[in-house]
Structure formats: C-alpha cells, structure tokens
From TrEMBL:
<protein>
    <submittedName>
        <fullName>Unannotated protein</fullName>
    </submittedName>
</protein>
<feature type="domain" description="AB hydrolase-1">
    <location>
        <begin position="30"/>
        <end position="282"/>
    </location>
</feature>
<keyword id="KW-0378">Hydrolase</keyword>
<dbReference type="InterPro" id="IPR005945">
    <property type="entry name" value="Pro_imino_pep"/>
</dbReference>
<dbReference type="GO" id="GO:0016020">
    <property type="term" value="C:membrane"/>
</dbReference>
<dbReference type="InterPro" id="IPR002410">
    <property type="entry name" value="Peptidase_S33"/>
</dbReference>
<dbReference type="InterPro" id="IPR000073">
    <property type="entry name" value="AB_hydrolase_1"/>
</dbReference>
<comment type="similarity">
    <text>Belongs to the peptidase S33 family.</text>
</comment>
<dbReference type="InterPro" id="IPR050266">
    <property type="entry name" value="AB_hydrolase_sf"/>
</dbReference>
<dbReference type="Pfam" id="PF00561">
    <property type="entry name" value="Abhydrolase_1"/>
</dbReference>
<dbReference type="GO" id="GO:0008233">
    <property type="term" value="F:peptidase activity"/>
</dbReference>
<dbReference type="GO" id="GO:0006508">
    <property type="term" value="P:proteolysis"/>
</dbReference>
<dbReference type="InterPro" id="IPR029058">
    <property type="entry name" value="AB_hydrolase_fold"/>
</dbReference>
Amino acid sequence: MSERRIPISTPVGQFEVWTRTTGNNPKARLLLLHGGPGASAEYFESLTASLVAAGIEVIEYDQLGSYRSDQPTDTSLWDLDRFVDEVEQVRIALGLDHTNFFLLGHSWGGILTMEYALRYGANVKGIIISNMMSSIPAYNRYAHEVFMPTMDQTALARIKELEAAEQYAEPEYQELLMEHHYVHHVLRAPADEWPEIVVQSFDHMNQDVYVLMQGPSELGASGSLVEWDRFSDLHNITVPALVVSAEYDTMDPVHMRAMAAEMPNGQSLHCPNGSHMAMWDDADVYTSGVLHFIEEVSG
C-alpha cells in the first residue's frame, strides 16, 4: 500500500490530489472515482479490500476539493470538463494505459467515467459505470414520476416545504431524509448500523462543490449539471463497459440496462438487494460482478 499526492495543473494554478494504491497487478489496475461531487473515496474501503484480496490492484483517489486533496475555493474549478482533465492527469502520473487501466465511477463518478471514455477512450481498457444514469433530466423525471410517489406523502410535503425555505441544514430536514429516503434508497440499513467509514465520507463532503454542481436537494439535481445528458452519445463508447444498477437505487434500473445496450461492448449487472451504495448493501453481487468483468476483459 502506498499513498501519493499528485500535482494537478488547472487554469488557476497547480494543486495536489491524494491517491492510495493497494495491491499489485500489472494487468488490472483499477482507479476509483467517488461520488458527490465533493465526497471522498473513503466509502470504497470495503470494495477495495475485497478486490485486492482477489488480485486486483486498486487506486483510491480523492478528487480536487475533496477530503484528503487540496480544497481551493475558486468556484471556476468546479467544472465537468476540468474534472475530466484532472482524471487524465492522474492517469498519466500513475502510469496507467490501455493495456491495464480500468476505471470505476460511482454516482457522480459515473458521470466522470462516461465523459472520460468519450474523450479519452483510447487510454482505458474497460470502464464500470456504477449507480449513475446517463441523463440528469431522465434522473429528475424518474425522481418525480416514479420515486417520490412511493414516499410517505406527508413527510415528502414537509421535505419540500423545508427545501422551498432553503432550510437544508435544519436537523428536521436531515432527520426526515434519513427516515424516509437514505435508509431505503442510499444504504439499506438502519441509520445506527451504517458503517462508520460511510458516515465519515458523508461528513467529509465538500458542500460548496456539491451544491454548486448537484444542487442542495437530495431528491433530484438542480445544480450546474442539471442539463447534462449523454444517452445519445453512449454508442461512441466502444471500450468494454459494465453498467451496475440496483433495485432500490434512486437511479432507474431500466434506463441503466438501456445504457448498456447502447454501448457496443456494454453489459449489465443488477444488484437485486442493493440501493445507491450497492457495494455495501448488496456487496456479494456487486463485488463478484465487478471482479468477473475485470477478469473477463483482462483475459
């Protein structure tokens, strides 16, 4: 295991991002892209351990602005294209290439993975898009038309009242979300049984980055990514691709199966007991599916 800080050049100066490499496999080196934007790679801890035990080299990485990396305050840095360029700089610094480089992006990291494959597909051996739809407008439609109607409507009405008043930091808002949303669709376990490392990762969220790009609400997106839609471009992703969906996720499993079908070398993995953090609440299915994909593509 080795930690390394990698210099990243940006339009407003140079910063450093944190990485940690565990395991050693010159044929299968997996870079993890965490969610948020603004979360951290901490919640990948269990997945990393399982994949390394199976012989995969895993590289955890906190994106710029996240917990163990530099956290500049210039908001011009919180831009999708700049984040994609950052991933490419990390790849080069770590010596990853098309013979061994696998990319797994979870949630927001899935957006980064799709964008990276569209721009730098020649540099990667295979990608894994985990728990992320290819269209924010489609995600928002799913949230309003399918997902929200299943919630307790009294609680939902109160959540919306608090959001309308921009009282996102109120304890009542967080408590309602935990009871009626998080424990059903983010990580399916009682709140007091959530793994400490997952709680830590949420606590370490850079809210400035998250709110600007995703928006403040947990029931849909409203930030700078609100119009992002790459479904019609998926046919241009020609590298082997695995799309991971989960039955209880906030992301539409039907849309995600369609994503896999759009990509020439795409395939699906569905976690029947999982939610947004399926690497935790449907760990066996998730980990074995990811491992099988990497082994299959590695040959």
